[in-house]
Design goal:
Elements lengths: L11 H8 L9 H19 L4 H13 L20 H20 L1 H17 L4 H18 L11 H5 L8 H12 L4 H16 L8 H8 L7 H17 L15 E2 L13 E5 L23 H7 L5 E4 L7 E10 L15 H19 L4 E10 L4 H14 L1 H5 L3 E7 L3 H8 L5 E9 H16 L4 E9 L9 E4 L5 H16 L4
Parallel strand pairs: 4-5, 4-7, 5-6, 7-8, 8-9
Antiparallel strand pairs: 1-4, 2-3
Helix pairs in contact: 1-8, 2-3, 3-6, 4-9, 5-6, 10-11, 11-13, 11-14
Length: 505
């Protein structure tokens, strides 16, 4: 596919307008104008080799969702009239394998549902819709752009002064391909896109967890630095992997069972079976048919005396749930702002990704218990402002658990271990604490760990430090300060979780 590196400025108008002949969707003049505004912005982000019709099609799909009209639809236009057999085959592949599949892919359905909600609430011109539309377009092009030939390209500076394409697309197409002396200019490049997409695009991972989260919380994540930090935390958490709760041993000594204030709070639901003993409020109603005061011997009274009345047996699982509180403490300092050579993110991002994964895993491991979680940031005095954004991000990432009342997130100035112990103790619950710290402070935390576990009531404490591992391995939980591969990090995370919930005095 040889040719000029750049499309001449005088040909740009025909290139953009003529390319619309190959568009897979039928758009309006207004939607094409909105798409062209997006196209100018995207060209400056490295997508200047893409044709305008691809951006117009993606924008139409984002705006219309399942209601989008495709060019082959004869019910709403000329359909495939005038297409040669070769052109029909290529265009239908483009419609079906790229544009149509976007609407059918489960991985993308949540994003399109969100866009439909934003369009209904604020319209196509609202900040909520327009900003998300551009971001979703960028995420989709991340997958498609590598498969479209990179030459020739448009000059983004020329696009800024170019008017939105209007007029006869067929005539513009004819002028452009004649000037380029290549009647197959668009078809050969479109075929490369379709072939490359079919063979290489991982549709099941078109949008990752961090992509969907970013789109859902776009208003909060407008700033690029915040958005990148949030995405990195989610990515670290995802790479660490979910724990299999069936393989986690939970120490079962000394936990308190869930208590109710009085008998009136006994759970009303959850029938486990029938029994011939019980309180009258649990009596099976059909037993009342035996009441007959006209008879010499009342069958109800007789069955009561003989112990033959039937009562519902309530499921007391709710009463037997263990009450547990887990405190995850990040002992933060300035060293966590650096990026070690062996990691692709800075230390604070890595540690917060670990915290996020541990929270999710603990909810899974203790799914049958009355669990309360706490994430606590301890930072040097005067450093609260620098960690304010980190706290906000973590609250956003764990908003679902906060909304359910399962989790609290707080930040405070560094507290001496003894004072913190008193604040965490709770005789009504089994209490765990995991302190994530750096090597310089880890020794002090480890020195107080035994006192926490021997106190009354105990706090089952664990210390994880970021430091260079010793030459001779020991039983300390250490996150290597000089870097580690993904397998090592995942294994460490599972070990942290297993030792935390399996500790005994």
């Amino acid at each position: 596919m040889s040719g000029p590196a750049l499309i001449a400025e005088r040909l740009l108008g025909d290139f953009q307008l003529g390319g619309l002949r190959w568009a897979a969707t039928r758009g309006t003049a207004a939607s094409r104008q909105r798409a062209f505004i997006l196209y100018r912005r995207l060209a400056g982000q490295g997508f200047h080799h893409l044709p305008f019709f691809l951006i117009a099609d993606l924008n139409q799909i984002i705006e219309d969702g399942p209601e989008v009209v495709f060019a082959s639809d004869a019910r709403r236009g000329a359909g495939m009239v005038g297409w040669s057999a070769e052109e029909r085959a290529l265009r239908l592949r483009y419609e079906n394998q790229i544009c149509g599949r976007l609407l059918l892919e489960p991985n993308l359905s949540e994003a399109f549902d969100l866009m439909r909600e934003q369009r209904t609430e604020g319209g196509l011109q609202s900040d909520g819709f327009a900003g998300r539309a551009q971001r979703l377009m960028e995420l989709l092009l991340r997958q498609f752009a590598p498969h479209y030939p990179r030459t020739p390209r448009s000059n983004p500076a020329h696009l800024r002064i170019l008017a939105p394409p209007e007029g006869d697309a067929e005539a513009a197409h004819a002028r452009f391909v004649e000037t380029m002396e290549d009647p197959d200019f668009f078809s050969t490049r479109l075929r490369a896109l379709v072939d490359g997409t079919a063979n290489a695009v991982p549709w099941s991972q078109m949008l990752l967890d961090e992509d969907r989260f970013e789109l859902a919380n776009y208003e909060v994540l407008r700033e690029e630095a915040v958005r990148i930090g949030c995405r990195q935390i989610i990515e670290v958490s995802r790479r660490l992997g979910e724990v299999d709760p069936r393989g986690v041993f939970i120490a079962d000594e000394g936990e308190a069972e869930t208590a109710f204030l009085d008998e009136s709070q006994y759970p009303a639901g959850g029938l486990a079976g029938l029994t011939n003993r019980g309180s009258m409020e649990n009596l099976v109603l059909s037993e009342l048919v035996y009441i007959d005061r006209q008879m010499a011997i009342d069958l109800f009274d007789l069955r009561f005396l003989e112990g033959e009345l039937l009562f519902y047996l309530r499921d007391d699982g709710l009463l037997r749930r263990k009450r547990r509180t887990v405190h995850l403490i990040l002992d933060a300092d300035a060293s966590m702002a650096r990026k070690p050579m062996g990691y692709d993110v800075q230390l604070s991002i890595l540690l917060q990704g670990l915290l996020l994964r541990l929270v999710r895993d603990l909810v899974s491991v203790f799914s049958q218990d009355a669990l309360t979680l706490s994430v606590m940031y301890l930072f040097p005095r005067g450093a609260a402002a620098s960690w304010k954004q980190e706290l906000s991000l973590m609250r956003l990432l764990l908003d679902d658990l906060i909304g359910q009342g399962l989790l609290t997130i707080s930040g405070q100035a560094w507290t001496a271990p003894g004072a913190l112990l008193k604040a965490l103790q709770d005789e009504r619950r089994k209490t765990y604490a995991m302190i994530l710290t750096t090597g310089a402070r880890a020794q002090r935390w480890r020195a107080t760990r035994g006192g926490w576990m021997d106190s009354n009531p105990p706090v089952y404490a664990q210390v994880v430090s970021v430091e260079v591992p010793p030459a001779e391995p020991d039983d300390r939980l250490i996150l290597p300060a000089d870097g580690a591969d993904q397998t090592t990090l995942s294994t460490l995370k599972d070990r942290i979780l297993g030792e935390l919930v399996g500790m005994r005095r």
